[in-house]
Amino acid sequence: MNNIHLNHIPVLTKEVIKSLNIKKNGTYIDCTFGFGGHSKKILEHLNDRGTLYAIDKDPYSINIAKKICDNRFHIIPGNFSKILKNFQRNNTKKIDGILLDLGMSSMQLNNPNRGFSFLLNGPLDMRMNPKVGIKASEWLMKSDVKSITKVLYEFGEERFAKKIAIKIVQQNKIKPITTTIELSNLIKKIVPKNKKHPATRTFQAIRIHINQELNELREVLKYALKILTYKGRLSVISFHSLEDRIVKKFILKNSKPPFIPTGIGINEIQLSNLKQITLKIIDKVIPTKIEINTNPRARSAILRISEKKNINEQ
Ligand SMILES: C[S@@+](CC[C@H](N)C(=O)[O-])C[C@H]1O[C@@H](n2cnc3c(N)ncnc32)[C@H](O)[C@@H]1O
Predict the structure, then answer these.
(1) What per-residue confidence (pLDDT) applies to 124?
(2) 100 lines ligand 1 (CB under 6 A)
(3) Is the CB of 73 under 6 A from ligand 1?
């Protein structure tokens, strides 16, 4: 097999670096190391007192990261939500910037053995960490029509969710679906051809479910806000509307000051709300046509940038 899956072109690299507003001796976290494209750029902007922590749950990415010999760089394997929670618990030094580049890496998508692609035949796996949890094929095997429909509808916004779910359950009773192409062929018989491949939405939905991606995102944002220092930056790249909606809502919710009615005294709860950490909206950036032409994966990327703000700031 050729090495196509070994190449991952990072998206919005220049914009990400600008968004993090990097202090040369600051401390940063790249929550999604992947192939290390963004991490390497961040390191270029740090001096010898700077620190970069990088996280990934995929053992293949961890192996790549371990090859980086740099005292300023620390790779931490695991789920980013759990790791940021530990950062908060251990009360380590405050973080100057956090990056999340969500979704799959090209290494994951283009490697048939990982089972993420409906175009390449391989085991129907889809786990970002193949050592944890169950494969997509095992989940489909043990699930009923109702739960498969729910996942396809909620995480894929798939109009044909129920029809697909019924067919999957029927097929699994005859001969279990174990490969990507078996699933993709089954969907092609149900979903009419459109601009997108008929299996796009189903594969996205199952992948999100198997990796608990939206829950992970909600959790990591919560802890990111807690560990960022004053004026620390939070930069998040999302690739579909479900992710972007969560990021946008989170930033909006935390950028509004709590409502305190005038003319009455402030009670304890209101006072603690007032002291609540908040965010300032900095920008929303999308890739240029030139970037999309050279890196089609950038097509649907949205970078949302926010900054931890002091409550006394207007
Ligand atoms: C789009 S890639 C990141 C690419 C990277 N920015 C680069 O420049 O190469 C996303 C990476 O995040 C990892 N990932 C996704 N969800 C994760 C989670 N909840 N915890 C840890 N890593 C996660 C995936 O395994 C994948 O390697």
Answers:
(1) 98
(2) no
(3) no
What is the pLDDT, as a whole number, of residue 314? Answer: 47
In the listed set 210, 229, 264, which residue is the last one of a domain according to the structure? 210
CATH number of residue 144's parent domain: 1.10.150.170
Annotated binding site for S-adenosyl-L-methionine: 36-38, 56, 80, 101, 108
The tally of CA atoms less than 13 A away on the side-chain side of residue 48 is 0
Residues 17, 23, 27, 33, Cα dihedral to 10° = 10
pLDDT at 309: 87
251: domain CATH number is 3.40.50.150
Same structural domain for residues 186 and 224? no
Which residues line the annotated binding site?
A: 36-38, 56, 80, 101, 108
Residue type, 187: I
C-alpha 202/C-alpha 149 separation (Å) is 10
Residue 227 shares a structural domain with residue 102: yes
Instruction: Name the residue range of residue 161's domain.
Output: 129-210
What pLDDT does residue 194 have?
84
Domain-located, residue 199:
yes
Identify the pLDDT of residue 272. 66
Q: For the chain, which ranges sit under pLDDT 50?
A: 1-4, 314
106 lines ligand 1 (CB under 6 A): no
Indicate whether 74 and 188 sit together in one domain.
Answer: no
- Distance separating alpha carbons of residues 148 and 22, to the nearest angstrom: 44
